[in-house]
Amino acid sequence: MRVAGIDCGTNSIRLLVADIEGDSLTDVVRRMEIVRLGEGVDRTGRLSDAALERTRKALTDYAAQIAGLGAERVRMVATSASRDAANADEFTAMVTGILGVAPEVITGEEEAALSFGGAVRGLPADVEAPFLVADIGGGSTELVRGSRSVDAARSVDVGCVRMTERHLHDDPPTMAEIEAATADIGAAIDTALATVDPDHGARTLVGLAGSVTTVTALVLGLEDYDSTRIHHARISYADVVRVTEELLAETRAERLAHGVMHPGRADVIGAGALILRVLMERCGAEEVIASEHDILDGIAWSVAG
């Protein structure tokens, strides 16, 4: 069966068209566009006209590709920004008109379960369960613990866009700004861990989404973004600390100079790396496994079923 899944978050909108047969998922196309749908939502409570227009253009392109590739079923999931916005109905009407199906504005816990399903399938055989899966998004971070299925999940409102807009205003951010962001992130992560993994029993930390994969690419010293090398790479806590410090000390222009850096991520990657660093501190993880398979894969599996 050929299916299409779309994940529209605070920072990016992503598309996966895949063929699913039995327990096998094969990519046909996987795409990502930075549209910053959640720009300003933490401050205004609304999706801006400019953000909606950027998203409309990307989604129109996706819809044409889905039709051209003959996907039989389509599911679109909308996450943090769409949960928070007072004018989410405008977004829903726009999506329905372009795609022919309404976006599902899911809860953080539903988001976590889809991310877990996408990330855990296909992990290397030597990776020990239970897993703690962390999906660091633009507006929120989802933590989910489980082995074959979800045991506990929690979403907290710390993401790379939200933390940048709330705290990291200077370029590069000041030490006071970094300390304020660190305190905000730490309090939220502690709350999530108290629900998800209170005894710190998870054996393996799996990190998802662009902040994690970009940090991984920098740790690996890649000149260009290479998903095949990033997927299931293991990076140490010490390396995450080092790269986080380097990113937070750089200007946006200096971060843009990294060959692996997506232009739409350069202004928020410092906050994303900081979330990963604080999470690893709080849960005592010595390393994190980066996964290129995430909520998109979970959406594809769910629509095929």
What does the model show?
This protein is α/β, with parallel strands linked by helices and about 300 residues long. It has two domains: about 1-105, Nucleotidyltransferase, domain 5 (2-Layer Sandwich); about 120-295, Nucleotidyltransferase, domain 5 (2-Layer Sandwich), CATH 3.30.420.150. It is about 45% helix and about 20% strand. It has helices spanning about 40-45, 50-70, 80-85, 90-100, 110-120, 160-165, 175-195, 210-220, 225-230, 235-250, 250-255, 270-285, 295-305, and strands spanning about 1-10, 10-20, 25-35, 75-80, 105, 130-135, 140-145, 150-155, 205-210, 235, 285-290. It has a six-stranded mixed beta sheet with strand order 8-7-6-9-11-10, sandwiched between helices. Strands 3-2-1-4-5 form a five-stranded mixed beta sheet, sandwiched between helices. A hairpin with a 3-residue loop joins β1 (about 1-10) and β2. α2 packs parallel to α4. The longest helix is centred in the middle third of the chain and has 22 residues, at about 175-195. The chain is globular and about 50 Å long. The chain starts with a strand and ends with a helix. The model has no long low-confidence stretch (mean pLDDT about 95).
Taken from the alpha-carbon principal axes, the silhouette is globular
Derived structural class: alpha/beta
CATH third-level topology of the largest domain: Nucleotidyltransferase, domain 5
Number of beta-strand segments: 11
